[in-house]
Design brief:
Blueprint: H1 2-28, H2 36-57, H3 62-67, H4 69-94, H5 98-108, H6 113-125, H7 129-160, H8 168-176, H9 179-193, H10 202-225, H11 233-256, H12 261-271, H13 277-286, H14 290-319
Helix pairs in contact: 1-6, 1-10, 1-14, 2-9, 2-10, 2-13, 4-5, 4-7, 4-11, 5-7, 5-13, 5-14, 6-7, 6-12, 7-8, 7-9, 7-12, 10-13, 10-14, 11-12, 11-14, 12-14, 13-14
Amino acid sequence: MESFMSKMLFADLIPILVIMAIAYISGKKNVFQEGQSQVLNKLVLDYALPAALFISIVKADREMLFENATLSIISLVGLVSLFMLSYYTVQWFFKRSKAEGAVCALVAGSPTIGFLGYAILDPLFGTGIETGLVVAIVAIVVNAVTIPIGLYLLNAGKSSTDPNAKSQGNALLSSLKQPVVWAPILAVLFVLIGIKVPTQLDPTFKLLAQANSSVAVFAAGLTLAAYKFELDWEIAYNTFFKLILMPGIFLAAGLFFNLSSLTLQMLVLGVALPPAFSGVIISGQYNVYTRQATSSLAVSVIGFIIAAPAWVYLAKTLSH
């Protein structure tokens, strides 16, 4: 456990905090002009992130998904239900708009499994089939289901406040046109049909995808610099939702459906990961819920250092 914590801290979480801090200081010193973070957000949202999602999902195995139907169903039902719970509760408790609720759900209700999944799980559980299975299933649900739902709700919410309001159908069509939506959906279809992407194309996708994580974190730091950082009740609620409520519900569900101890530990740790960077990028791109999204990300990254070993220990103890 000590080596796992050391690896997680120095190889994964500290780099995120350092890059965000560099970007934050750069933003405060006006090294980057106002609005340049939007350019970075667009680069990630329209190019780097879709490439990263596509290449990660098409590596999944169709047979593996079907053979582990219980894990797939728990992940799908649990993540979508909690996503919608976050969407509604932030509107009820903090009087947010539908568009703001959508971005909040993309942050508080979505783990950054695509970026940190293998990096966090491999040092503790190894690089076996089970690790790849959990990461693949959770990543498919987050990237191919909840992100499209969130963008649809965001477009629909913005349309409802627009004097020239679009129909719900137009909001859905607008969401489906975005690369960050259709790329992971296309990848899932490839997996289900059994289409294999030639390995010769991997370097092309990976070269573009490599810009995703670093640029996304840097853009989040720049966005945070444009707003006054405040640790208020709403950010505390988002952090609680992400680090406590989500893994707690998945732990209970996994125990109820008798998941193996190893799979349960990985699943609980996977959903406890900090908020998906895609939510923060979408927030910055649409200029909706930006301060809360970036602040929730920063606080959750720090809180994960404490939450991660606690959840692994609890899942391991209860499953035995």
